[in-house]
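Input (structure):
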């Protein structure tokens, strides 16, 4: 079984802490986070994942949806 790197968990934590910033800058978009930076964003999850992997060469990347005011959970 492959171990998830510590960096992944740190990026996930950073994404949670930066929720307000992400909402202002990337509403209703997917964002990919590597080393506590947004490396890709967009409306299409698959495209964001592919762009982030192409830019970084990293397999395990935090990708989260930044909900906006029109999202119902």
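Output (sequence):
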């Amino acid at each position: 079984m492959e171990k998830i790197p510590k960096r992944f968990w740190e990026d996930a934590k950073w994404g949670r802490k930066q929720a307000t910033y992400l909402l202002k800058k990337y509403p209703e978009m997917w964002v990919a986070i590597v080393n506590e930076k947004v490396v890709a964003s967009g409306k299409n999850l698959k495209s964001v994942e592919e762009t982030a992997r192409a830019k970084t060469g990293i397999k395990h990347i935090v990708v989260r949806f930044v909900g906006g005011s029109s999202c119902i959970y």
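Notes: Helices lie at 6-17, 19-25, 45-56. The chain has a mean pLDDT of 93.
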